[in-house]
Amino acid sequence: LAMIRGGRHLGDRPLFPSNAQGCAPLDALVAFVEQHYQDHPVPGRVLVNLDPAPVREALEAVVEGKVVVVAARYENERAWIGMAENNAGLALLVREQESSRGEQRLEALRDALQLAETPTRIECFDISHTMGEATVASCVVWDGTAMKKSEYRRYNIAGITPGDDYAAMRQALTRRYEKVAAGEGVRPDLILIDGGKGQMGVAREVLAELGLDIMMFGVAKGESRKPGLEELVFPDGREPVHMRPDAPALHLIQEIRDEAHRFAITGHRARRAKARNTSRLEDIAGVGPTRRRKLLAAFGGLDGVRDATVEDLCRVDGINRHLAEQIYNALR
Predict the structure, then answer these.
(1) 299-308 pLDDT tens trace
(2) What is the per-residue pLDDT for 12?
(3) Coil, strand or helix: which one is 139?
(4) N or C terminus of the chain with fewer C-beta within 10 Å?
(5) Is 23 in contact with 34 (CB distance < 8 Å)?
């Protein structure tokens, strides 16, 4: 998808339609524009390198009005189409190379773990919190040859002893795989746990309770906790496996594990920030959602409320002096 504004080329965006194998190019193009422009504004003019009539008909059905869709006629238009085609070819080449690399790493992982078959779908779990506060578990998905972000999941963990990573992992795994046990959702070929023997013990118990038999292993940081020195821990108690730092299988494991960590920590930080900006005020007797919103709006956030004097707080609609003193004291 090439974007031209005011005669200037502003860049390309490679988009790969799903389930387009064996589809005629024009059919794929029509299906793509129908879906893409349901969520994006239709530009004033659309250039295509195929028959414009079916594309125009599809877009006019989406916007319920006239749309200008034409084939390239002038030199500059042909140049734009040629540029888009060249860039699409390069994007496809890069994607194919990445896919081939992903397949090679999956095969290397199968050999390293001595699996009967090459895993296709890998799900990885990680836990993030700050001293037990705002615990979040992440589940990221490697499907085929790349991370599949549309299937990532976060779980806000509640009802456990703060800082109990084992309980957090138990809750996340239970919430994810009880659906699989009930015949819902997609079953992974392999489960990756960011943790050592303790976390693996919890994972083994959860799957056993749910009646699921899914291959899994944990990634424990080595004694020095340096990248490349991780050891793979298995639920059946066999000796941990150490891979060479340059092993393709280890690089795949690290990529998936690091993505799970990133996804968990960003979710944790968002949850922690929200809790610190809302719950502390609502924990004060007499401050409900309405008064909290007025206070945050009046002072630009929780830091502003915290810095306010009793007199400042009294100026907010609905805050009397007694309540202002309660708020002032509670935030210090």
Answers:
(1) 877 778 888 9
(2) 77
(3) strand
(4) C
(5) no
Phi, psi torsion values for 73, nearest 5 degrees: -120, -35
User: Residue for token digits 């490697």?
Assistant: 142
Mean pLDDT of the chain: 87
Q: How confident is the model at residue 320 (pLDDT cuts 50, 70, 90)?
A: very high
DSSP-derived 3-state class of residue 144: coil
In the chain, the amino acid numbered 71 is A
Report how far Cα 42 is from the mean position of its chain's Cα atoms: 28
From the number of C-beta atoms within 10 Å of its C-beta (0-12, 13-18, 19+), residue 39 rates as: exposed
φ, ψ at 216 (rounded to 5°): -155, 160
Q: How far apart are CA 26 and CA 51, in angstroms?
A: 7
Give the residue carrying structure tokens 């295509």: 48
Q: How far is CA 243 from CA 111, 122, 224, 254, in A?
A: 12, 19, 15, 11
Helices within the chain (DSSP H only): 25-36, 52-63, 75-113, 165-181, 197-210, 248-282, 289-299, 302-307, 310-314, 321-330
